[in-house]
Amino acid sequence: MRKKQFKTESKRILDIMINSIYTNREIFLRELISNASDAIDKLSYISLTDEKVGMDRSEYKITVTPDKAARTLTVSDNGVGMTEEELENNLGVIARSGSLSFKEQMAEKGDDTSDIIGQFGVGFYSAFMVAQRVTVITRAYGSEKGLRWVSSGAEGYTIEDCDREGWGTDIILDLKPDTETEKYDEFLEDYRLRALIKKYSDYIRWPIILGDETVNSMVPIWQRSKDEVSDEDCNKFYKDTFFDASDPLSVVRVNAEGLVSYKAMLFIPGAAPFNYYTTAYEPGLRLYASGVMIMDKCADLLPEHFRFVRGVVDSPDLSLNISRELLQHDRQLKVIASNIEKKIKAELKRLMDKEPEKYLKFYNAFGLQLKYGIVNTYGGKKELLQDLLMFYSAKEDKLISLKEYVDKMAEGQEYIYFAGAESIAIAKGLPQTEPVLNRGYDVLYMTDPADEFVVQILESYSDKQFRSVNDDDLGFEPENGSTEKEEDDEALFGFIKETLGDKVSSVKLSRKLVSHPVCISTEGPVSLEMEKYFSSIPGGEGPKVKAERVLELNGGHPVFAALKEAYNTDKEKAAGYAKILYDMALLIAGIPVEDPTALSQEVWKLF
Ligand code: ADP
User: Fold this and answer.
1) Distance from the CA of 167 to the center of ligand 1, in angstroms?
2) Is 162 left (phi over 0), alpha (psi -120 to 50) or beta?
3) Ligand 1 mean position, distance from CA 124 (Å)
4) 328-350: pLDDT as tens digits
5) What gap in Å lies between CA 499 and CA 490, rounded to an integer?
6) Is the C-beta atom of 168 inside 6 A of ligand 1?
7) Average pLDDT in the chain
8) Is the pLDDT of residue 107 over 70?
């Protein structure tokens, strides 16, 4: 007999389970049945290509057996079983995402386990909520001998060889003794077990046998008609299957017949998983061919820009014994993927139009993914995605769609105006927006680093081109009327340029400024936001992308008059003013000044 310790992390979960006073401990049965069902899925998948399995699909089953005399409850399956190594790896450590994300949530929540246990696939360990000892007898597919794993909790577990007829696993629970307040005997009662199986495991696709009867209806939830399945059922299925603590925002059901027939149940989550924007997040839909699970996360079914969608696809038309590599090139799969893309788009559009609050929630979580979709495909998905985008409207003070912008454009307005800034607050203070807003035109604030790339790639929406408020040509003549240069202005601008050196590429009289004395704009394709974006990429020595900065001055402003006066009478003072104006323009644009001490020294001189 081999005695082993649990890994530390497992110990902690084990502790929680053993000492749990969680009233919903009944979910242990759901967890064990779900493991049994996965094990059968695996063997039935192997049997597609390996004749030696020699099992008929109808022979697979999960058996639940209470024994009142021995006070044990046994859950058995004739699935794939576990080798000794698997026993160690799967039951000795926290094996999979379900248990892992549970652990992470536990860490966040401190010791208040009450409302999270039920939301996660807490897995095998949940058996310890009801059992004082758990025995696992298992024989892996292809293995000659069986193994017995026994644990009474935190001290560890033992493994020894044993006999077992056929492949599969028995999980034997020695139930905890009843106490005044805690009753475990109920898990030996047929009626109670039947109710639990119905409640949590009805859609498991393999028969769950209690006594001599199959208790579950076995029809997976996505195979049932809409009126048979409540929203609550769908939400529960989603939460249990995809380990999300909250309901999905929306459920899309597809029942396609035609070129390729398939059923799908797709979920749009309400929040991004914590690892969503990292490579740790694995996108994909669970794929079944005629009820046999072929792949847990089939990424080829989901386009990158909709990778947040969770769900299942089940098709009788997919060839069963196709290898995963071949699947990628499968024509039917491509048809399904392209249909699914359309369905998701339609649902998101519906949410946007009909349930705007939900859409906002969605957009806050996954809007960035849609923008990446436009940028990464170099506009290839423009038609699909542009209607789903939202940007912050200066006039409406909230996110609006491009369609809303265009629909509300003023008479004579030719362009969709936008202003790049780091935040809404900074955007609101940008002097350049003033002439556009004064004219009654709305401005979209672009505050995501991706935004300006999106705009560059989109170029236009509904035949209206995008135009930055920085652009020299706004498409109308701004009303400040101060663009007429006086003769000596050229010399002044030359002087300022000389003073500022290569910080700016030019200095000029602004056509746009209204009440502000100064602003920074850019020439050429690189905006300040892009420059900031590139310089924020860690790892440093990439190409230095620099915006060509233009210092614009408002010729009608008293500050300009003072500057001119200084230039004519005291060049040193004028140089100081020029430096201050440049730094102020940077601050307004949300860009840190390069040398704050030098700036303050110039300001002190004014006193
Ligand atoms: P999860 O189900 O979230 O992976 P569990 O703790 O429930 O976590 O199970 C850990 C692993 O142990 C499973 O992923 C599976 O590989 C293995 N396992 C559990 N029960 C069985 C079983 N009845 N047959 C075969 N393998 C099993």
Assistant:
1) 15
2) beta
3) 6
4) 667 888 999 999 999 999 999 99
5) 14
6) no
7) 87
8) no
Say yes or no: CB of residue 199 within 6 Å of ligand 1: no
The one-letter code for the residue type at 563 is L
pLDDT digits (tens, 9 = 90+) for 72-91: 999 999 999 999 999 888 88
CB 457 within 8 A of CB 433: no
Q: Compute the C-alpha angle 287/290/291, nearest 5°.
A: 65
Could you tell me if the CB of 78 is within 6 A of ligand 1? no
Percent of the chain at pLDDT above 90? 58
Contact 87 CB / ligand 1 (< 6 Å): no
Question: Which CATH superfamily groups domain 2-214?
Answer: Histidine kinase-like ATPase, C-terminal domain (3.30.565.10)
| Ligand 1 geometric centre to CA of 94 (Å) | 10
Ligand 1 contact via 82 beta carbon (within 6 Å): yes
Rounded Cα distance between 435 and 412, Å, is: 15
* Rounded-to-integer distance, Cα 261 and Cα 355, Å: 30
Output the CATH code of domain 367-468.
Answer: 3.40.50.11260
The atom of ligand 1 lying closest to the CA of 121 is: 3
Ligand 1 mutation target, pool 44, 85, 124, 136, most atoms within 8 A of CB = 124
Instruction: Give the C-alpha separation, 543 to 541, whole Å.
Output: 7
Average confidence (pLDDT) over 238-260? 90
Give the residue extent of every domain in the chain.
2-214, 221-356, 367-468, 486-525+544-604
Ligand 1 center–CA 90 separation, angstroms = 6
- Tell me which CATH homologous superfamily contains domain 486-525+544-604: Heat shock protein 90, C-terminal domain (1.20.120.790)
**Integer Cα distance of 456 and 223 in angstroms:** 44
Nearest alpha carbon, ligand 1 atom 11? 90
Residue 311 has what pLDDT?
97
Cβ atoms 436, 417 nearer than 8 A: yes
- Provide the 10 A C-beta neighbour count for residue 362: 24
Q: How far is the CA of 35 from the centre of ligand 1 (A)?
A: 5
DSSP 87: I
For ligand 1, the distance from its centroid to the CA atom of residue 139, given in whole angstroms, is 14
Q: What pLDDT, on the 0 to 100 scale, is given for residue 320?
A: 60
Give me 27's structure tokens: 């979910």
Ligand 1 pocket check for 36: Cβ under 6 Å: yes
Q: Considering the entire predicted model, what is its pTM?
A: 0.73
Dist CA 92 CA 339 (whole Å): 42
pLDDT in tens, 437-470: 999 999 999 999 889 899 999 999 999 999 999 8
